[in-house]
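Module 6 notes. Inverse folding takes a fixed backbone as the condition and produces residue identities as the prediction. Think of it as a translation problem where the source language is geometry and the target language is the twenty amino acids. Below is one complete input and output pair. Work through it position by position during the lab.
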C-alpha cells in the first residue's frame, strides 16, 4: 500500500538507499543471427507475460525475495540454467504438469525459439528470465528449488576463461543456497574438461555426487526423462560423447 504522505522525492531516496547488487561482468552472447518474423512476434507478444517479475533491478530495486508460493501455487519449483533453444525445458514442463519451472537464458535467439515451442505445446507451468542467472539468484529465497538442470553450458574452452564457467563458486554457492536439502542438480555436457571442473567444484559448494554416466564413466545412459537437445545432437555428429552427472544438495 502506498503511503499517502510520501512524495516522489521520498520514493527516489528509498530506491537509492536500497541495497544494490554487485556490478558484474557478463561474457556470454546475448544476440545471434537475425530473428525471423515469427520469432520477433513471439518476443513482442509473449515475452512480457512469461517473464518472471521482480528479477531485474528496475522492477525490484530493493531486491526483495520473490514470492515463490504465489508464483508456483504450491507446486515444486525447478530451474534450468541456460535453456538454449528450450527443447528440454518445454519437454519437462509437458511431462510434469504438477511442477512449475523457471528457465534462465540471456541469448535472445534462444528465448525466441523457446517462446515458439511454448506456443506450440500450449504449456502454462513455466516462467522465464531472459538474462543473467545471477540476477535471479539475488531474489530467490533460500531453499526454494526442488531440482536444477545445467545442460550443455557454454564450455569456455580456453584455460584463462575457465573462471567464466557456471561450475565455479560464484554461481554454485548461490545455487546451493536456493536449493532445498536433498534435492537434485543435474549436469550434462560433451566437454571432458568441463566434467573435470564440475566434479571438483560442485562438491565444494555443498553437493554430494550421486552418479556419473556416459563416456569416460563406463558408458551408461542419461536420466529416464532426458530429452536429447540440438546441442547434444551436434556434439554426437562431431564425435564428442555426452556425460551426465547427478548431484544431491547436502542436508
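Target side of the pair, the amino acids:
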Amino acid at each position: 500500500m502506498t503511503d499517502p504522505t510520501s512524495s516522489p522525492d521520498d520514493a527516489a531516496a528509498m530506491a537509492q538507499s536500497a541495497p544494490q547488487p554487485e556490478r558484474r561482468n557478463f561474457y556470454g552472447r546475448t544476440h545471434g543471427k537475425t530473428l525471423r518474423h515469427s520469432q520477433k512476434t513471439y518476443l513482442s507478444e509473449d515475452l512480457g507475460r512469461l517473464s518472471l517479475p521482480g528479477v531485474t533491478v528496475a522492477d525490484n530495486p530493493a531486491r526483495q525475495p520473490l514470492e515463490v508460493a504465489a508464483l508456483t501455487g504450491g507446486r515444486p519449483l525447478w530451474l534450468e540454467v541456460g535453456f538454449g533453444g528450450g527443447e528440454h525445458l518445454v519437454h519437462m514442463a509437458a511431462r510434469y504438469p504438477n511442477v512449475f519451472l523457471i528457465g534462465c537464458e540471456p541469448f535472445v535467439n534462444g528465448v525466441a525459439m523457446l517462446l515458439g515451442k511454448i506456443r506450440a505445446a500450449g504449456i502454462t507451468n513455466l516462467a522465464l528470465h531472459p538474462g543473467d542467472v545471477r540476477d535471479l539468484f539475488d531474489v530467490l529465497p533460500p531453499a526454494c528449488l526442488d531440482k536444477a538442470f545445467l545442460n550443455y553450458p557454454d564450455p569456455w574452452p580456453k584455460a584463462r576463461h575457465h573462471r567464466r564457467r557456471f561450475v565455479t563458486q560464484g554461481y554454485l554457492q548461490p545455487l546451493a543456497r536456493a536449493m532445498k536439502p536433498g534435492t537434485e542438480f543435474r549436469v550434462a555436457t560433451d566437454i571432458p574438461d568441463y566434467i573435470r571442473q564440475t566434479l571438483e567444484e560442485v562438491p565444494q559448494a555443498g553437493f554430494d555426487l550421486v552418479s556419473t554416466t556416459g563416456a569416460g564413466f563406463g558408458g551408461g545412459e542419461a536420466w529416464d526423462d532426458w530429452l536429447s537437445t540440438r546441442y547434444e545432437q551436434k556434439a554426437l555428429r562431431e564425435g564428442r560423447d555426452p556425460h551426465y552427472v547427478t548431484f544431491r544438495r547436502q542436508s
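Reference fact for the lab report: The CA atoms of residues 93 and 125 lie 6 Å apart.
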